Amino acid sequence: MPEVLIDLSDGGVATLTLNRPHRKNGITKTLVDEAIDALQLLGAGTDCRVLVLTGAGRAFCSGMDLSEPIAPDEVTFMRRVGQLCRAGTCGGSGGDGADQPLRAGSRSG
Question: Which helix (H) or strand (E) holds 52?
Answer without folding.
Answer: strand 50-55
